[in-house]
Amino acid sequence: MSYVSQPIKLSTYNVNTMGEPVHTLSLEVLTKKQRLVIAFETIKQLGWRIKFVSDAGVIAYTDNSSFSWNGEITVKLEQDTASIKCVTISNVMLDYGQSKIAVAQYMASFEKMRSAFTDEEINKLYKQYERDFVPAYEDILKPDTRPRFNVVTSYWWFLLPGKNYFITPFIVFLNILVFIIMVCAGVGVFEPETKSMIEWGANSTVTTLDGQWWRLLTNCFLHFGLFHLVLNMYALVYVGFFLEAIIGKARFVTAYLLTGIVASLVSLWWHDYTISAGASGAIFGLYGVFLAVLSTNYIERSLRNGVLASIGMFVVYNLVYGSFKGGIDNAAHIGGLLSGVVIGYLYVITLRKPDDRKLTWLILSSTIVIVFACSAFAYSSMSKNDRVIYYKRIQEFYKLEEKALAPIKKQEYQPDRQRLSDLNNSIGYWKSGVILIKELGRLKLSEKIHNRNELLAQYCQLRIHSYQLMHEAVTHETDMNSSKQQNINQQTKQVIEKLSSR
């Protein structure tokens, strides 16, 4: 049904930038759901055709056959008011006041509908309307949320900051700068030594879990050679060019740092022993954020489908490739990816409400606090793990091994008395190594480490037997290269090969 037009007093009247009359209605006593449901039900009560609905308001056609006139009425719901305007969409030159009449009808009907529904009915109707809400990027009642990408105008565009591409080139530049400084300090360009990487802040089971927690982050800016750097920076630029324009600077840099930390922790947790570095964990985190955003309807379909396929292929290919090729830390990749997905869905909540700065900073700060708290707990738990104690003490074994092997290199140039003395000392070092391995065997370790310990103990016993044979040969002036010695040496070589493959 429709109400007869009656002259009523409009609450407020002004003109918008297009010169169109806009009326406002106070909604202070109504909840958000009440405002929306009453606004939509008023249109239905008047018999008008709804064009579309959203959580920002409704647009409808007023259909007035009496005057062969049609109008389009827009009801935009804001914080405490509703802005109402009506424009003619018919071929009639003059609307004869029909636009004003339509607004008056709507406002009169709205006032009557204020108390027409119970809270239960409001909730039920709201759920029905909510299914028809258009995505934010299609809602003309809201600001245009479509991302604005920079125009590529230079060969060096990936290093040039722009309005919506600022954090990405900064991170790229920082990674390149760190690599240049390392090379200038003597670190290898293509295959840097592990020791050098640890000195510069790589993630290492022993050093990181021994109080040097800052390596969880510093390793995200280090790379094992030029090729490693180039591949990671290419992946970073690709995701950054799109993602930063969509989620903004603060969310982007926060996601990079937080997912990088989580990736480093997952790497430490997954591997018995690791020395890792690279931005790939954090980059996979950004791809996780992107996948989360793309899986919703926040981004318009034309952009979403193409990019989603590209991002999905990149992630799957790299994870599968990393599973078959050694030296790639897939644990860090998966940790970064999954944490990025979780953070991405949290970001979507704020992206849907771009004007609510309090909500944005609440979720952003809460995400930081939660990740830091969980990371601190995980770090503390792993620091107390027997695995850390093992890798600290195993260094003692390697020092004993080094001392035991040293005299063999100079045996031929020493008198027999000195040779015998050195051999006795070496046998003592090997026996100390056996005792140390047995002590480490009482720790709670993985089966893989225990199996390695058994091989180390076997290695020490073979060395002891070998040195005893050499001691007898020197004492009795017999052949140092007897068949027994050759057999022991062959067995020792086989054990060393097994240790090297683990």
UniProtKB/TrEMBL annotation:
Subcellular location(s): the record lists: Membrane
| EC numbers | 3.4.21.-
Q: Where are the membrane-spanning stretches?
A: 165-190, 221-243, 250-269, 275-294, 306-324, 330-349, 361-379
Q: Record's InterPro entries?
A: Peptidase_S54_rhomboid_dom, Rhomboid-like_sf, Rhomboid_protease_S54
SUPFAM superfamilies membership: Rhomboid-like
- List GO molecular-function terms, semicolon-separated: peptidase activity
Topology in the lipid bilayer: Multi-pass membrane protein
User: What EC class does the entry list?
Assistant: hydrolase
One Pfam family, please name it: Rhomboid
Instruction: Tell me which Gene3D superfamilies the record gives.
Output: Rhomboid-like
Report the residue ranges that make up the Peptidase S54 rhomboid domain in this protein.
211-348
> Is Heme there in the keyword field?
no
A Gene Ontology biological process noted in the UniProt record is: proteolysis
Q: Which UniProt keywords apply?
A: Hydrolase, Membrane, Protease, Transmembrane, Transmembrane helix
Q: Which family does it belong to?
A: Belongs to the peptidase S54 family.
Q: Which PANTHER family match?
A: PRESENILIN-ASSOCIATED RHOMBOID-LIKE PROTEIN, MITOCHONDRIAL, RHOMBOID PROTEASE
Q: What is this protein called?
A: Rhomboid family intramembrane serine protease
